[in-house]
Design brief:
Metallo-B-lactamas; zinc; alpha/beta; 268 residues; 11 strands; metal-binding; binds zinc ion; Metallo-beta-lactamase, Chain A; EC 3.1.1.81; globular; five-stranded mixed sheet
């Protein structure tokens, strides 16, 4: 744990209406927000939390989200900036399977894959209002098959190399790398806290709170399966941040993202 380093892998940006970012509150109008993945260099291995979105998928299925992504903002491109390749990653853990968190999974056939145990079945059989969220199915041969979308699979993606180990509740992925069960936004959503030897812990809200304002006002995004659980999860995150004096990092907050360390800079 003494030399744990955390990198934010910039994955480009997307656009949503303000009424989606701040559910039933707004204000409306276009909000451009960042998407990124989290790389944890740890004594026990290299862990990647989420894999961003796939530009071609968004252009095909949700072009109204106006993706902006350079080659260096694809997951292989962002790893390349650090001198790494997808095969250098030991474990891919998905916070949930919305398209902006699993679009690059297909590049990691060799990594161990993990998620909450309810996320794979939910992606395979989503509620009608979740279909666009769970629209990039290239992360799992099993899910793509269940949804009749095997055309999304990259050649080489098999049932065997896209199988997930399911977990539940709060889980310590490696020493000081803590997954916090925060359902609501999705059925098996996880937030993340990383502890370091020489600095405050960092608590990544992931999509429990897209922005700082979301958490401060307990206003979640309009995408969720259980908004009451979503509020409780926000309260859990707030309390944990306070109890551990953790620095909060938000998932889709452009103003704050500009101050975050990205590229070859890291936290540790
Ligand atoms: Zn998201």
């Amino acid at each position: 744990m003494s030399d744990t380093k955390v990198y934010l892998l910039d994955g480009g940006s997307l656009v949503l209406d303000g009424f989606h970012v701040f559910w039933n509150k707004g204000p409306g109008g276009e909000v451009r927000f960042p998407v990124y993945s989290i790389l944890i260099e740890h004594a026990e291995g290299r862990f990647l939390i989420d894999t961003g979105y796939d530009y071609d998928h968004v252009m095909k299925v949700l072009p109204f989200e106006k993706p902006m992504q350079t080659k260096e903002q694809t997951i292989p491109g962002a790893l390349g900036l650090l001198g790494l390749e997808p095969k250098d990653i030991d474990v891919v853990f998905n916070s949930h399977f919305h398209f902006d968190h699993c679009g690059g999974n297909k590049y990691f056939p060799d990594a161990k894959k993990m998620c909450h145990k309810l996320e794979v079945p939910q992606a395979a059989k989503p509620q009608p209002f979740e279909i666009l969220g769970y629209s990039d199915l290239s992360f799992s041969a099993e899910v793509a098959e269940a949804r009749g979308a095997t055309d999304q699979l990259l050649a080489g993606t098999t049932a065997k190399n896209s199988t997930f180990e399911g977990v539940e509740g709060d889980v310590e992925l490696a020493k000081g790398v803590k997954l916090l069960f925060t359902p609501g936004h999705s059925i098996g959503h996880y937030s993340l806290m990383v502890e370091f030897a020489n600095r405050r812990p960092i608590l990544f809200t992931i999509d429990v709170a897209y922005t700082q304002k979301s958490l401060e006002t307990l206003c979640q995004a309009s995408f969720h399966i259980d908004p009451v659980a979503g509020v409780e999860s926000m309260q859990k995150i707030k309390k944990l941040a306070q109890d551990h004096d953790a620095e909060l990092i938000y998932s889709h907050d452009m103003e704050n993202f500009k101050t975050y360390k990205t590229g070859t800079q890291y936290y540790g």
